[in-house]
Amino acid sequence: MKSKKASSFHEFARNTSDAWDIGDDEDEDFTSSSSSLQTLNSKVAKATAAQVLENHSKMRVKPERAQPALSEMPTNCKVNKSSSEAQLSRISEETCMRTPLQKQQSLPLRPVIPLVARISDQNASGAPPMTVREKTRLEKFRQLLSSHNTDLDELRKCSWPGVPREVRPVTWRLLSGYLPANMERRKLTLQRKREEYFGFIQQYYDSRNEEHHQDTYRQIHIDIPRTNPLIPLFQQPLVQEIFERILFIWAIRHPASGYVQGINDLVTPFFVVFLSEYVEEDVENFDVTNLSQDVLRSIEADSFWCMSKLLDGIQDNYTFAQPGIQKKVKALEELVSRIDEQVHNHFRKYEVEYLQFAFRWMNNLLMRELPLRCTIRLWDTYQSEPEGFSHFHLYVCAAFLIKWRKEILDEEDFQGLLMLLQNLPTIHWGNEEIGLLLAEAYRLKYMFADAPNHYRR
Amino acid sequence: MAGGEGPVSGVAESREHLFKVLVIGELGVGKTSIIKRYVHQLFSQHYRATIGVDFALKVINWDSKTLVRLQLWDIAGQERFGNMTRVYYKEAVGAFVVFDVTRGSTFEAVSKWKHDLDSKVLLPNGSPIPAVLLANKCDQKKDGSQNLSQMDQFCREGGFIGWFETSAKDNINIDEAARFLVENILANYKTFPNEENDVGKPKLDLDPLKAESKSQCC
């Protein structure tokens, strides 16, 4: 199995810095099978645990901060500290309900991340001061972003292993193709696009109560309060109204698909990332009435456009009969049958069909299976990878499935398997786990892109 | 009740059954809430929209010699997912069709769902699978009450074996509705006991004689 290709992957691994950080002290051999990924994982889990514990002890230390992103930041920008206890109990209740399989508790070394719903990644508030390496990376980003013409290829390369929180909003705008690479055109483009969006609102939003759009609006209206129901940010009326407008406008401008459940989730990462530009600490508890209307409008318009760009690439996921999803679920089955026959046969034995669990993985881009902070990190890569959302996601799903192979093989009936697969214990996941997942996905993609018959029996 | 007529005495030793039961209806009518209430005795305003299908298992000690496992398939309510239902309905032996008493349009959609069900899954003898209609969110009902005899008639004409006013929030009639459906499924089973043990995967329970029972309303 060790081949020239694999070793060039190895080189890639070395080049893409921090996705591999945690493996630095390992003899990283990503060319070997998933079982070694597992071993690596348990080592990593311990290392991570130790690291997080250490971070916890530094929790009170004010992290070194970058300048607030924009001058628009209101002076009365009050930041609500996470009022953890009430939320924690609510969350743990939900957890018990949703996951009868509390397998994550079998890792005693792993400390509890304070807020399960915590959005920001571990480089955000409460994290220790940046390492030299992180500083260098951030510097590199700043350099790229401030150059007259941002080198998008270079930006993608830098972003693949994760975008630093401080520069994520502007980087995402660039990577999604929303913002032009040319520095001078950016301001005007933003202004124009934001005006255009609010032009749509003016033109179409009143039609939500008319007969031909009523159904669409009603469905959106029902789904919004139950989008991220455990995160206080999304229970605020102002935020819910923003989501309704974004989704309604998108839906009526895309009649081939219209509003499909799941699309509501896809607004969330953009909204949170663009909001984070104005919020110092816990985004999930932030009261948006502290922001000026102009700022809120910018966040709304940017979220709309970036979500539109994303959906443009996966539109056949949501058109009639959802052919994109059908195709990808089949492809996943095919892929898994080649890379892990044992898991595949296990599913067949107990009559588990891929569609029964992977439909949601495709329809919601794994957002239902991962904490929001992980989705944000995942999207750093999806936006850096050619066809990230439409193609690379398939390999991520395969890697994700194989990650649980042991748990899967331990289940010996249909119900057990389905309930495991629909409640995978990722609640503690952070950047490290996503980094490993992406590494494995990349390995799979590499093998099958260049040698599609490599594993054919 | 529907189950009373079967030759119960024929079944001597203890039995285990696994029944696949569907829960269908328009989006936001409370399908997930009903299942969570029934299986976990919990209610929350905070369930996310179901995408595709969710699974739950309810184990019932039916009587001293009968154990029933209900495999509940919580099917997403949005029409866009409708073309998937054929895959999901396969081998189901019972169904709940749910609507929201506070939204008339969800009641109008009941017939559509029932038709979808009957056109995609049947018992081996060709009769429709037993379906119970649930009028959910009855705790929020505004006007007095639906006309009971009208609902009975609707059930008869629509081929439902019965209907219940339910509230997942206040835990009204959920257990009763489930018991009613299971009795019906079991009666089918006892009428024509399956030779194979049905544990391990959903097995159809045959029902040639009970086709008329669908006119029973509660």
Quick structural overview:
The complex is a heterodimer of chains A (457) and B (218). Chain A has 457 residues and is an all-alpha fold.
Description of the structure:
Chain A is built from 19 helices and no strands. Chain A has 457 residues and is mainly alpha-helical. Among the domains of chain A are: 9-41 and 319-455, Ypt/Rab-GAP domain of gyp1p, domain 3 (Cyclin A, domain 1), CATH 1.10.472.80; 176-312, Orthogonal Bundle (Helicase, Ruva Protein, domain 3). In chain A, helix 7 crosses helix 11 (293-313). Chain A starts with a helix and ends in a 7-residue tail after the last helix. The model of chain A is unreliable at 1-45 and 56-117 (pLDDT under 50). With 218 residues, chain B is an alpha/beta fold. The termini of chain B are close together. Chain B has a single domain (15-191), classed as 3-Layer(aba) Sandwich (Rossmann fold), CATH 3.40.50. The A-B interface holds A 94, 97, 219, 222-223, 225-227, 229-230, 257-258, 260-262, 264, 318, 320-322, 351, 353, 355-356, 359-360, 363-364, 368, 413-415, 418-419, 422 and B 27-28, 36, 40, 42, 44-49, 51-57, 69, 71, 76, 78, 80-81, 83-84, 87, 200-201.
